[in-house]
Structures are given as structure tokens and as C-alpha cells.
Amino acid sequence: MWFMWALAVLAGSAAADQQALERMARGEHDALAELYDRYGRTVYSLALRIVRDQGDAEDIVQEVFSQAWRQAGRYDSGRGPVVGWLLTMARSRAIDRVRGRRVRPAAILDETAALDMPDGARLADEQLEWAGRASQIRSVFEELPLLQRMAIELAFYEGLTHSEVAERLELPLGTVKTRIRQGLLKMKDRLGRE
Amino acid sequence: MDHDALRESTGLYVLGALAATDREAFEAHLATCAVCAAEVRTLAGVSNALAYAVPQIDPPFALRSRILMDAGAPRQTSSLSSAVPALESRPRAASSPSFVSSGWLSAAAMLALAVGLGGYAVSLRQRVGGLELQLRETVNRLDRSEQAVAVATQIAERAQVRVAVLTSPDLTQVNLAGQRPAPRAIGRAFWSRSSGLVFAATELPQLPAGRTYQLWFLRGTSPPVSAGLLKPDGSGRMTAAFDTPASVGTSTGLAVSIEPDGGVPAPTGELYLVGLTQ
Fold it and tell me: Considering the entire predicted model, what is its pTM?
């Protein structure tokens, strides 16, 4: 979790997040608003990328922050930064939905609704302190060799399992395993160095 | 399974992609192996960072209040809506009957009223100025949002084509090998007749001025059909997606040749990459 810590510390928010959770545990709604204002967009963006449906993504964000509200008192800071907890919840819920949907294969390709947002939308490359780091993560990811990137993309963003990734890329199981590990290690190396 | 074999699974494990039985075996190993546990901790950080590699998009504004109300928070009013009733309430005080009824209103009182109204007019102007500023900021924000949506839509469309290709049931992979002018070049194509072509290449030599690379569908003894033009970056790498041309028919492979800028209807230049469908 070194990287999440680095991000949270960069944003100067690791301690503030912890305090917000403590205040949430005491029933202070302002603290929930504060946490949402800090991470609502990050959580929403990840959920939207995975489920590719605005309504589903909103539901997931609502579930994640409701759960954070209910379980704030039980959160153990030894588990890592709060933002990592929120994102893990969001990803696992999003993947549950996508995997549930996969019974109807046509739905996976139906992405037209993904960016049809009535309330305005924008890329994050401005304002937030995360932005500089976020675009760096994106470019490090984009620079990975094609098959490493595709294998990671299918597993992380599409929620495919090991054998599903192998099937989709027409590669042996062992190759997929190695490519994913190499890709992540390479990202760690590049992100850690800069 | 031994340590080396299990260690290869660290990536799949942190992405949550291991099948249940594999995961149990890996977790049993993890409990006893400090090396693998350390690697899992490191890679978990990278896996979390991937959450930030997605384009960041603002959630709808209403979602915030839904979440707060869900948690039982009291309704909040915005600063703008609270400013408007304040504007309305002042003129009502100014036109109240006590100011117009008496004929004996002294000059001093009239002066005080004039000064009061003047002060009110100033504060009104300031308030209108403030609102105009807010409006301008909002319009600017909207402009920026619209530009960003256009960019995001483009990115999404490109990504959509690639995902559509990679998830098609008729996906074919073609590996292209470097030819005489570029023996180290490598190309890889993922082609679906129904959804299009995703093509990637590395180690393509720098193009001389006025030249371009062009990708061709080979068709056995029939003439090749152009798939599109390729522009590698400074390091000789490129990735691009193309539609399947209507006239392809049966394709036996793909090739890349060097051609005059803008491309040509039939290949004329030397071949740099060639690969046949398996």
C-alpha cells in the first residue's frame, strides 16, 4: 500500500481522512460531506470505468459512502489509507455487477451510455492535487508493452478472471500470469522512481 | 507447487483474478513466505494506483445530496439561494407605509432616508456585481466542461473500438515479423471482421520526410486492400485502431509498406512487416 500512502500524503489528507472517519463515527454529517468532496469523483470515475453505466456507477458510489458511514467506527487505520478502502469497495462492487451482467454477453459491449452525463463532466487534469500524479499513472500504464497492458486492463477494469483473460487474448494461462506480474512490477518501478 | 511457481501469481492475486482454488493455495503459501508477502504488499499499491489511471469524471451534482440524505443529514441550502430572498426583502421595507404617510417629514429625515436608500443602492449594485461574477464563472466552467466532454467522448470512442475488437467472437491474432529494411521491427494485430482491427508495432525506423507507413490486408492472389496509415512515435512504437474495409473479402495476412505521404491505393514501396493469418 506504499503508493496509496504516498498519494494520500501528497494530498495532505491522510490524517484529515482519519479524523473525518472518527467524526463520522460520532454521527457528524459534515465529515461525510468532507470525505465525499475529497473522493467522490475518484470513486465515481473508477466505478463508471468498470460498469460503463452512469446509473450503476451512481448506485455504487452511494453504496460505498453509505457503507463508510455505517462502518466508520470499525475502520482500522492499520489497514492502510482511507482512500484505498473506498476504492477497494467501489471496485469489488463494480466487478460484482459486471460479472452478474456477463450472463448477457451483449451488455458488455453496450458502452454508449458511459459518458452521457447531464450534469456536466470533465477530466480531472485540473484543480485537484491528484491530477499531476493521476496523469503520470496513466502515462506509465500506457507505456507498458501492449499485452501486459491488455492483460492488466482486462483483469482490473473488466473484472475478468485468469482463465477468462487467457481466453480473450488467446494466450496460455502461464503467459497471462507472467505478463500481469511483469506489468505491475514495471509500473511500480517507474512510479517509485519518479 | 514450489515458491517460484507460486510467486508468479502475485499479480493475479492483487488484481483479484485468481480462481478460488488457486487463491486458496496461494494464500496458504503467502502465510509462510515473507518474500511473496512483501511482493503482494508492493503490488497491491500499484493495483490501487490503477484506480487513478481512469479519466476522472465529475459525478452528477444530485448524488452528493442523495448520499448525505441517505445518512440522515439535514437538507443544506446553497449560498446562491439564500442570497436571493435577501434581495427581495429589502425593497419591501423601503416601500412600507410609514415612510410616505406624514407631510411633516423633516428635511433631516428625508436626508437620512436618501442616504439610507443610496447606501442600499450601493449594496444592491455590489450584490448584482457579485452575482454577475458568479454567473460568468459558471458559464466559463460550463465551457470548460463541454470541451472536456468532447475530449472524453473521443477517448471513449477510441477505447470503445478497441474493446469491441478485443471482445469479438471472431477475433484473430496476426503476428507480423520485421523484413529486410527493419529486421528488429515487430507488429501485432488483433482483427475482428465485424468490429475492426487493433494494430501495434515497435522498432519501426524513423520515416524520412514525405513518407508514411501503410498497413495492408493481404488477400492471396488478389490485390491487397489498404487498412490505413501508421504514424510511429519518436521511439518507433505505435498503436492504432482501424475499421475493417468493406472490400477485404478473405484475408490471408497483413503487411506494412513504406509509401508516399497520404498513402496510395495499391502498395508500391518496400515491405517492413509481414504476418500471415494462422
Answer: 0.50
